[in-house]
Amino acid sequence: MKRVIAIDGPSGAGKSTIAKLVASELGFSYLDTGALYRAVALNLVKLGLDEKASDNEISSALERITVDFAEGKVFLNGTDVSEEIRSPEAGHYASVFSARGPVRRHLLDIQRNAAMRSDLVAEGRDMTTVVFPGAYRKIYLDASVEERARRRTLELIAKGVKTDPATVRLDIIGRDKRDSGRDIAPLKKATDAFVIDSTGLSIDDVLKKITDIVRKKAEVAGGKPEEGLPAYRRREE
User: Which of 44, 127, 142, 146 could make an S-S bridge to 6, C-beta 3.0–4.6 Å?
Assistant: First the structure.
C-alpha cells in the first residue's frame, strides 16, 4: 500500500475541501469516500429501498450497482453522478445506508484498492479507524455544529437550493447521532490521530496545519520536510 493521509470528521467539517487541497499540495491522489456512499445510497433509493430494507435486500441490490471514483468524478453504473449526489436527499440516505454492513463491505475493497495505485488522501467517517488503520498520517477534522450548519447552508444557497438554516442544523445533528451511534464502523477519533478544530479558521490555516503535521513539523520543532514532499505553498486568495 502507498502512503495514505486519512482524514475523518463529522458532516460539514470541511473534509472534502481540505482533502482535495492537501492532495494537490502534496501531489497525492484524492479519494472522496463520502461520494461513493452517496452514489450507492442514491441508487438503492432509486431501486425502491429505504432504511427499513433488510440486509438481504440491500445485498441483492448491490449486485446490480457498480461505483467508481476517477479524476474527481463519481460514476454510478458508468454514468457521471457527481452533481446529483450532492443533493440533501443523497446526503441523508448516505448516512442511513452507510450504517449497513452490506454497503460498507461492498465499498471497503474499492477504497483500499485505490491506495494500491498511488499515494492517497482519503476522507470520510472511518478512514483512520477501519479502512486505513495503518495510515501514514491520521487527521480528525472537527468544527462546531453552528459552524458546520452555516457552511452547509451557504453551500446549498450557492447551488441555488432553497434551504432553511434551522432545518440544516437539525439535519447535521441527526447525522452526527447516526454516524457516531451506529454499531458498524462508527465515527470516532482514532487514538493516534491529530485533532484539528476548523471553527473560525480559514481554509488556508487548516491546510497549513495539516501539511505541517504530514511533515512532522507539529511533532518536531524545526523539522525538515520529508523526502518527496514539497514545501508548503500559500494559496493565492
Answer: 127
Where in the sequence is the domain holding 135, given as residue range(s)?
A: 4-206
Query: What is residue 109's predicted lDDT score, i.e. its pLDDT?
Result: 86
Q: How many domains does the chain have?
A: 1
CA 115 – CA 31 distance, rounded (Å): 9
Specify whether the CB–CB gap between 26 and 163 falls below 8 A: no
Residue 79 pLDDT exceeds 70: yes
pLDDT of the residue at 224: 53
Specify if 152 maps to a domain. Answer: yes
182 inside domain:
yes
Instruction: Give me the chain's average pLDDT, please.
Output: 88
Q: What is the CATH number of the domain that holds 131?
A: 3.40.50.300
At how many degrees (to 10) do helices 88-97 and 33-46 cross? Answer: 90
Cα angle 218, 219, 223; round to 5: 85
For residue 30, being part of any structural domain is answered with yes
Give dist(CA 139, CA 192) in Å, integer: 9
Q: At residue 72, does pLDDT exceed 60? A: yes
The pLDDT of residue 222 is 46
CA-closest candidate to residue 141, choices 96, 187, 109:
187
Q: What is the mean pLDDT of residues 183-212?
A: 93
Query: Considering the entire predicted model, what is its pTM?
Result: 0.79
Extract the C-alpha cell encoding 7.
482524514
Q: Is residue 225 part of a domain?
A: no
